[in-house]
């Protein structure tokens, strides 16, 4: 009997880490107090897994921000601009890289919510964070033997980027020879401390790797082989199946004792094992329990699968595991007091998934908990038969969607001309992305309203006053296209989940997005429809307060899908089409109510892109189609905006163009304006576009000159008649003082450039 957990949520069941981090960042608590909260969380997690009977318990999966940044600290790979001079990396340097500081911007964050290492040939590496060893020892002192987890050297490099101004001939994999010695130091120290297992997370192994990369992978592990002596080494993969050629390489590595495979997202993993077999001298860590969703595992079906794997790997070589880290799920179903019993019986959060893994492990050796399995079987049957899940009218409407591409008939250039005649916007129009700061008072008002502690009238008055404040601020700043600030919304996805049929909401189903940012994804359990308008009242209320255009703010169907816990009993695209129809109804109601500009955010479109190129075309086809469904029926004079987060769009720019939005705002500043390179390469973008001019994830306030410089660089590749000026993202996480200063500088920069362009032309 053997069980393993790839990783576990670190935020705490009640977001203890979030509050501790924010108190520390605000100067309200000390580093020691933050470290004490972190230590208590780690201890609680290790004891929980040990009490459940877990054999392979991970350590070093806790992080104050993210594990890639932790690895950057371990390797001493600090970009020179942060002024680190050596020694153990402390909070000042660590959080400066993550969040920026008063003088420096943060490092780039990518769609997977990790801080991207910036590496070059001249960077000096050194063993500069002993966190992996410290946490292993911490657990050992409690009597808990753990498996220290390290981001593997190849994945670390391939998930990094070349530093600015590095020669194009530089190969980032050439740095393996510099970082391998540090990995050896870590392994030697872990062995000295008593570790007998170590887990290398190598998620890039599920991607399409060329022969050069596979050779580098083999070479890296050959160099590490000497340090593997005395250790059992697990190479862990997740999020997809491993390609056959890569599988052949991984399974023949000397010194590697075990391979971890995802049997959930890796839909071809079973077929791969059946066709290529599995080496008799290695352990198979079978990721059978879904680490990325909250549905209870079908234990009977999973047990059957595991028994078939015993015949391939051998009974004494099969370890029951999660498909990936449980970091991506909510923490504990016990804390859900408002979910009804039926839906609750269909679910398993991280704490419950630990129990599932161990139940399957015991069942494999003849210690099956018949009562637990029976309850699980009943819950599976209940979900399949529930009338709450299927809606025939919704299914009829979505099936009809496949007969059209839902494209607006008038070309975007002609639409923009008509929209400009209607709105008469200046050159380089300014706007923001949607949300304004969510103050403590605002969160208190929403909380008290949900708890029935204030009346409808009191709530409406408070929200209306906040909207009026936001409108007046934007008018004073002379922003051209306004937003209402979204004071009524707790989250851009959960707000819609509260109002759409087929969704369930949790009380404490929090998941870490990055750093202290947490989200509470709604649960899509059934067919989706819109019972009534969701945003029209507040949008029209805001529009009545100003003569400037107000954007109606919606979250797009792909983002609602990708940032929810999605039902796993039908293809994701079917659910996305259902959401698209619901948003389409809302778009048309906003237009009928007089809203001229409607923003349909697709912040997570890139985030949902499959890792394997062979699967990307199909995803982009239905994702883009879903977006077009939402706005295909509006008038040419109604301007449709969309917003996207993160900057890695160069490889999907044709799909972005195919979305056919009138204006797209997009993250750009944190990535050294990487987005602009695609336009330098000759891509013609004829719609409106607003590459973000400053990073909202950092408290740093950019100067007018800095923003003007960004706009000037953008004008080098984009026509001034299509360019918009806006921040990178929504402003909800910032303070009003920061927002007012930054937007003041942004508007001043836009006016400065307008004057220069007018005088020049």
UniProtKB/TrEMBL annotation:
Zn(2+) 1 binds at residues 643, 645, 667, 729. Its EC number is 2.1.1.14. It catalyses: 5-methyltetrahydropteroyltri-L-glutamate + L-homocysteine = tetrahydropteroyltri-L-glutamate + L-methionine. L-homocysteine binds at residues 433-435, 601. Binds 2 Zn(2+) ions per subunit. Its cofactor is Zn(2+). Zn(2+) 2 binds at residue 658. The keyword Lipid metabolism does not apply. 5-methyltetrahydropteroyltri-L-glutamate binds at residues 18, 517-518, 563. Pathway: Amino-acid biosynthesis; L-methionine biosynthesis via de novo pathway; L-methionine from L-homocysteine (MetE route): step 1/1. InterPro entries: Cbl-indep_Met_Synth_N, Cobalamin-indep_Met_synthase, Met_Synth_C/arc, UROD/MetE-like_sf. One of its GO terms (molecular function) is methionine synthase activity. L-methionine binds at residues 433-435, 486, 601. NCBIfam families: met_syn_B12ind, PRK05222.1. This is 5-methyltetrahydropteroyltriglutamate--homocysteine S-methyltransferase. The lineage of its organism: Eukaryota, Viridiplantae, Streptophyta, Embryophyta, Tracheophyta.
């Amino acid at each position: 009997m053997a069980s393993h957990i790839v990783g576990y949520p670190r935020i705490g069941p009640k977001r203890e880490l979030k509050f501790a981090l924010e108190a520390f960042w605000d100067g309200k608590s000390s580093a020691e107090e933050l470290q004490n909260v972190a230590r208590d969380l780690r201890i609680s997690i290790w004891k929980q897994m040990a009490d459940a009977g877990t054999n392979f318990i991970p350590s070093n999966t806790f992080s104050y921000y993210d594990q890639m940044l932790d690895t950057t600290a371990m390797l001493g790979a600090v970009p020179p601009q942060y002024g680190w001079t050596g020694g153990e990396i402390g909070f000042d340097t660590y959080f400066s890289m993550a969040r920026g500081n008063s003088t420096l911007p943060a490092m780039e964050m990518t769609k997977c919510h990790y801080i991207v290492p910036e590496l070059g040939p001249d960077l000096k590496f050194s063993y500069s964070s002993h966190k992996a060893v410290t946490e292993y020892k911490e657990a050992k002192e409690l009597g808990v033997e753990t498996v220290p987890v390290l981001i593997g050297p190849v994945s670390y490099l391939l998930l990094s980027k070349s530093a600015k101004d590095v020669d194009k001939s530089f190969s980032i994999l050439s740095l393996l020879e510099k970082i391998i010695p540090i990995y050896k130091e870590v392994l030697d120290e872990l062995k000295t401390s008593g570790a007998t297992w170590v887990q290398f997370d190598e998620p890039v192994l599920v991607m399409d790797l060329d022969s050069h990369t596979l050779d580098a992978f083999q070479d890296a592990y050959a160099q590490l082989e000497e340090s593997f002596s005395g250790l059992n080494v697990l190479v862990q993969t997740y999020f997809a199946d491993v390609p056959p050629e890569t599988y052949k390489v991984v399974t023949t590595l000397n010194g590697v004792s075990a391979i971890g495979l995802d049997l959930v997202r890796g839909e071809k993993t079973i077929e791969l094992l059946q066709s290529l077999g599995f080496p008799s001298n290695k352990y198979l860590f079978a990721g059978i329990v879904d680490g990325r969703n909250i549905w209870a595992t079908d234990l009977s079906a999973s047990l059957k699968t595991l028994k078939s794997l015993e015949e391939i790997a051998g009974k004494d070589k099969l370890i029951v595991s999660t498909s990936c880290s449980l970091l991506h799920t909510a923490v504990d179903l016990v804390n859900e007091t408002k979910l009804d019993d039926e839906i609750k019986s269909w679910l398993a959060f991280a704490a419950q998934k630990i129990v599932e893994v161990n139940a399957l492990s015991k069942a494999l050796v003849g210690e099956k908990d018949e009562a637990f399995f029976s309850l699980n079987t009943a819950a599976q049957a209940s979900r399949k038969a529930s009338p709450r899940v299927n809606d025939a009218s919704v299914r009829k409407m979505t099936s009809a969607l496949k007969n059209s591409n839902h494209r607006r008939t008038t070309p975007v250039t002609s639409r923009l001309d008509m929209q400009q005649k209607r709105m008469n916007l200046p050159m380089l129009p300014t706007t923001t992305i949607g949300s304004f700061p969510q103050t403590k008072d605002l969160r208190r008002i929403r909380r008290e309203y949900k708890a029935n502690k204030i009346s409808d009238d009191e709530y409406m008055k408070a929200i209306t006053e906040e909207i009026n404040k936001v409108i007046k601020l934007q008018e004073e700043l002379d922003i051209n296209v306004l937003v209402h600030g979204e004071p009524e919304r707790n989250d851009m996805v959960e707000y819609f989940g509260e109002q759409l049929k087929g969704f369930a909401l949790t009380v404490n189903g929090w998941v870490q997005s990055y750093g202290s940012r947490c989200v509470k994804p709604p649960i899509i359990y059934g067919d989706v429809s819109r019972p009534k308008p969701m945003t029209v009242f507040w949008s029209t209320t805001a529009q009545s307060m100003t003569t400037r255009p107000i954007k109606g703010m919606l979250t797009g169907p792909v983002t609602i899908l990708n940032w929810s816990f999605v039902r796993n009993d039908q293809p994701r695209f079917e659910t996305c089409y259902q959401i698209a129809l619901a948003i389409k109804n809302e778009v048309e109601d906003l237009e009928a109510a007089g809203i001229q500009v409607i923003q349909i955010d697709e912040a997570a479109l890139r985030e949902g892109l499959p890792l394997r190129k062979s699967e990307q075309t199909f995803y982009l086809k239905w994702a883009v189609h879903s977006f077009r469904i939402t706005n295909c029926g509006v008038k040419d004079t109604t301007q449709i905006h969309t917003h996207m987060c993160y900057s890695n769009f160069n490889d999907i720019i044709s799909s972005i163009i195919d979305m056919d939005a009138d204006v797209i705002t997009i993250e750009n500043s944190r990535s050294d304006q990487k987005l602009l390179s695609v336009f330098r390469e000759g891509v013609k973008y004829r719609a409106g576009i607003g590459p973000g001019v400053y990073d909202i994830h950092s408290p740093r306030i950019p100067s007018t000159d800095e923003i003007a410089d960004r706009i000037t660089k953008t004008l080098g590749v984009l026509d001034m008649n299509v360019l918009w000026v806006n921040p990178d993202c929504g402003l909800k996480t910032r303070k009003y003082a920061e927002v007012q200063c930054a937007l003041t500088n942004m508007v001043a920069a836009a006016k400065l450039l307008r004057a220069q362009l007018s005088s020049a032309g």
